[in-house]
Amino acid sequence: MPFLELFDETLDINATENYELSVQVSPDDLSFCILDTLRNKFVLLRSYEPEDNSRFDPYRLNEIIKKDDFITRPFRKTFVITPTSRTTLVPAPLFDDSRKEDFLAFNQNFPEKERILTNKHRYPDIYTIFSLPEGTADLLNSTFPRGVIMHPLKPLFQYINFNKRSAGNYIHIHFDKEYFIMVIFDPDELTFCNTFYYKSLSDIEYYVLYVLRRLNIWQNEAVYLSGRTKRDQDILRGMSDYLGNLRFALPQGNYTFSYVLNETELHKYLVLFSAVNCE
């Protein structure tokens, strides 16, 4: 099982009540980072991934969690990110919690044994509605009973609001293993947000260019990339033929990073690090 671990020498397993935990749980990875709130510094990044093309089921995720020496310890706060493409957005004035299943079913097909969750966003003033397999939802609730469970859009929107410009478009593409989320702000409102499945680089190029052309956005505007994809260099080489200003989005907020985290590509864990900005 591929494994990544980077930790600062100040990390103290007996001081987790002064730490905040951000953990991402999905069939494709279990990753977490720890923020030392006394120093306001990230001091650990750890990630587990399945072998080859296999995927984690709730049983395997539970095994990893039980064996990990940090995840189940008491933390000051815990943020849980649950990537899924089964999601939709609803403006806050129209949202009704009793109708969240109807809202999601409007544009998503989801299995019967799915748990529906919601996240409220401060800006834009909307709700994210998303679903998780019941086994995964039960695992998260039992492991992190006080944790804040969120779709990746919540920390992603928080990051964008912290970094977007006061004029012009802000274009962001966040990758998962089989799909990506494309978000555009112009500049004070959300103008586009959608999820696209892809199998090849040409799929990514087609969807991105199609959206930009339909919205009359120039191809030389900055496009920020983040997320867990193993094709970073291929994406840069391929898309740079059509887009003149590609940039990796690096985590930013009211925190610092241990020097050991310079050894990894931080854009891959953007939403993980950005979760601590979500209250």
Low-confidence stretches: none
- The chain-level structural class is alpha/beta
Strand content: 25-35%
> Radius of gyration over alpha carbons?
18 Å
The named CATH superfamily of one domain:
Protein of unknown function DUF3822, C-terminal domain
Main beta sheet strand tally, sense and closure:
7 strands, mixed
What would your notes on this structure say?
It contains seven helices and 15 strands. It has 279 residues and is an alpha/beta fold. It has a domain at 165-248: 2-Layer Sandwich (Nucleotidyltransferase, domain 5), CATH 3.30.420.260. The strands form three sheets. Strands 1, 2, 3, 4, 5, 9 and 15 form a seven-stranded mixed sheet that branches. The protein has a five-stranded mixed sheet with strand order 12-11-10-13-14, with helices on one face. Helix 1 (58-67) packs parallel to helix 3 (134-143) and helix 5 crosses helix 6. The protein is globular and about 55 Å long.
